[in-house]
């Protein structure tokens, strides 16, 4: 296989196709995976087979004969999750309860999901034929992530909205209107069918130093302190809100520390 | 600006995953009830050790627990993500940390996915029995390379060494095997 610069493997179209089975099975070497990724990112050909075979290979995960795990495993996993107080990836919303009290949100533990067997069984053929749509899923999300030709901004906005919509669950969401100059900020107040309302933020930069965001419920011209938070590394934060009856708007200010009344103008306001 | 009723999340997994953001243990329990058996079967198949398999399943569900908030609905099915984590971690456990094999997906860089897209849902609904039957119907030399690679975690040069066949032969057998699996699954679909 040709080498471009020192240590950089390059695959041509035929070499990629020849490697498609190994790639799909996770049996290619790391430098070959990287070279395949680079090739797919730059190649005008669709290489449909590469994606389809990867999709087929992922189905192998379903092949083992079912073996019931011991009941204690379920209990152990749930207990470990409960005690998993400081996961590195956890959204900070968990650690900065806004309306007092952390832990699971009351009311969210209902709505049992339908059993898996009740899912519609869709044709496998349909799945296999949908190679283009499945491309990123099948071979690796890195491919999608690296495709520069995707409109990343639009993609991001759509993803942010879906993130919020996923919480609504048939309820309503009201977007936060950003103050002038803060148009990149994104969030919504989500009033769910069940459980307390949430303030969901998907694109908040980390505040400088020890600054914090502070949430307010505005009634008339009177702000009520709903607590402070710092978003996680991805700019996400989810806060549970108290009863919003009589509240005209929910607002966010940027503050040095938690303050009894806002010291700055709101950067985000959701009129209810 | 009211956006009105949001689109319904048709994949129950997506709704469960969204609930993980608020550290909703009941949601984790439901995800386990939906996918724990498959995860356990896969981990056991790869590791061949009951204790190790349970550790792998636990790790995978804790990864889900910790990363639930990073999900992006367009990025694929929860079950696929979970089983990929299980497969990769099981192989790590099997091989120790010195393995050279590429993973099926670079899980550490994955954006945890939920979905309401029908393709991924279809993938979730694929019957394990069909996959087993399709695998069993492969010519033995093709089945062997698939099993050594996917369940054994061997890179194709290792498969070549193990079986005493040239690298090119392994690569072409892998490709042929997957093409044949694809054909079997499609044929079943047509007959159904
Ligand atoms: Zn090409």
What is the string of SSEs of chain B from the N terminus onward?
Answer: EHHHHHHHHH
Please state the CA-atom Rg of chain B, rounded to the nearest Å.
18 Å
Low-confidence stretches of chain B: 1-9, 97-124
Helical stretch count of chain B? 9
What features would you describe in this structure?
The complex is a heterodimer of chains A (272) and B (192). Chain A has 272 residues and is α+β, with helices and mostly antiparallel strands. Chain A has helices at residues 13-18, 20-24, 30-42, 48-59, 71-83, 124-129, 131-139, 141-146, 152-168; strands at 172-175, 177-178, 187-191, 198-201, 212-219, 222-229, 237-240, 249-255, 268-271. Chain A has a five-stranded antiparallel sheet, with no helix packed on it. In chain A, strands 1-3-4-7 form a four-stranded antiparallel sheet, with helices on one face. In chain A, strand 5 and strand 6 form a beta hairpin. In chain A, helix 4 (48-59) packs across helix 7. Chain B has two domains: 1-113, RNA polymerase sigma factor, region 2, helix turn helix motif (Rna Polymerase Sigma Factor, Chain: A, Orthogonal Bundle); 115-192, Arc Repressor Mutant, subunit A. Chain B is 68% helix and 2% strand. Chain B has helices at residues 12-20, 25-47, 50-67, 78-95, 118-125, 128-136, 140-151, 156-163, 167-191, and one strand spanning 2-5. In chain B, helix 2 packs across helix 4 (78-95). The relative contact order of chain B is 0.11. Classes of the chains: A alpha+beta (272), B mainly alpha (192). At the A-B interface, helix 2, helix 3, helix 4, helix 5 and helix 6 of A face strand 1, helix 1, helix 2, helix 3 and helix 4 of B. The complex binds zinc ion. The site of zinc ion has 6 residues of chain A, from helix 1. Residues 13, 16, 39, 43, 45, 47 of chain A line the site of zinc ion.
List the topology elements.
The complex is a heterodimer of chains A (272) and B (192).
Chain A: H1 13-18, H2 20-24, H3 30-42, H4 48-59, H5 71-83, H6 124-129, H7 131-139, H8 141-146, H9 152-168, E1 172-175, E2 177-178, E3 187-191, E4 198-201, E5 212-219, E6 222-229, E7 237-240, E8 249-255, E9 268-271
Antiparallel strand pairs in A: 1-3, 2-9, 3-4, 4-7, 5-6, 5-8, 8-9
Chain B: E1 2-5, H1 12-20, H2 25-47, H3 50-67, H4 78-95, H5 118-125, H6 128-136, H7 140-151, H8 156-163, H9 167-191
Helix pairs in contact in B: 1-2, 2-3, 2-4, 3-4, 6-9, 7-9, 8-9
Bound molecules: zinc ion.
Zinc ion binds at residues 13, 16, 39, 43, 45, 47 of chain A.
């Amino acid at each position: 296989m040709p080498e471009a610069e020192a240590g950089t493997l390059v695959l041509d179209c035929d070499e990629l196709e020849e490697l498609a089975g190994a790639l799909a099975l996770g049996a290619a070497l790391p430098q070959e995976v990287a070279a395949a990724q680079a090739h797919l990112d730059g190649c005008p050909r669709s290489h449909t087979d590469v994606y389809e075979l990867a999709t087929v290979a992922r189905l192998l995960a379903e092949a083992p004969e079912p073996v019931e795990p011991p009941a204690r495993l379920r209990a152990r996993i749930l207990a470990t999750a409960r005690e998993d107080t400081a996961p590195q990836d956890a959204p900070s919303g968990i650690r900065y309860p806004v309306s007092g009290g952390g832990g699971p949100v009351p009311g969210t533990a209902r709505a049992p999901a339908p059993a898996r067997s009740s899912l519609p069984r869709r044709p496998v053929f349909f799945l296999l034929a949908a190679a283009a749509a499945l491309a990123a899923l099948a071979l690796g999300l890195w491919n999608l992530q690296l495709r520069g030709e995707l409109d990343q901004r639009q993609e991001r906005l759509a993803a942010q909205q879906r993130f919020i919509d996923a919480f609504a669950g048939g309820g309503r969401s009201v977007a936060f209107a950003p103050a002038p100059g803060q148009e990149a900020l994104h969030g919504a107040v989500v009033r769910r069918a069940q459980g307390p309302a949430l303030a969901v933020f998907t694109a908040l930069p980390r505040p400088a130093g020890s600054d914090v965001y502070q949430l307010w419920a505005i009634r008339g011209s009177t702000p009520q302190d709903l607590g402070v938070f710092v978003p996680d590394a991805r700019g996400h934060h989810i806060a549970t809100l108290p009863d919003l009856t009589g509240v005209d708007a929910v607002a966010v200010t940027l503050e040095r520390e938690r303050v009894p009344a806002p010291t700055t103008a709101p950067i985000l306001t959701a009129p209810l | 600006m009211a956006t009105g009723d949001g689109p319904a999340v048709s994949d129950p997994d997506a709704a469960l995953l969204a609930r993980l953001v608020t550290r909703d243990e009941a949601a984790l329990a439901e995800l386990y009830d939906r996918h724990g058996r498959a995860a356990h079967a896969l981990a056991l198949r790869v590791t061949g050790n009951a204790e190790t398999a349970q550790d792998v399943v636990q790790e995978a569900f804790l990864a889900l627990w910790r990363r639930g908030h990073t999900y992006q609905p367009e990025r694929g099915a929860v079950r696929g993500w979970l089983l990929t984590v299980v497969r990769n971690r099981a192989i790590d456990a099997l091989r120790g940390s010195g393995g050279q094999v590429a993973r099926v997906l670079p899980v550490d860089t994955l954006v945890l996915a939920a979905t309401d897209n029908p393709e991924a849902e279809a993938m979730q609904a694929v019957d394990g029995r069909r996959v087993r039957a399709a695998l069993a119907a492969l010519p033995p030399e093709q089945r062997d390379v698939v099993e050594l690679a996917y369940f054994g975690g061997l890179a194709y040069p290792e498969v070549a060494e193990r079986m005493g066949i040239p690298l090119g032969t392994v690569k072409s057998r892998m490709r042929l095997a997957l093409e044949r699996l694809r054909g079997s699954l499609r044929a079943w679909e047509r007959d159904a």
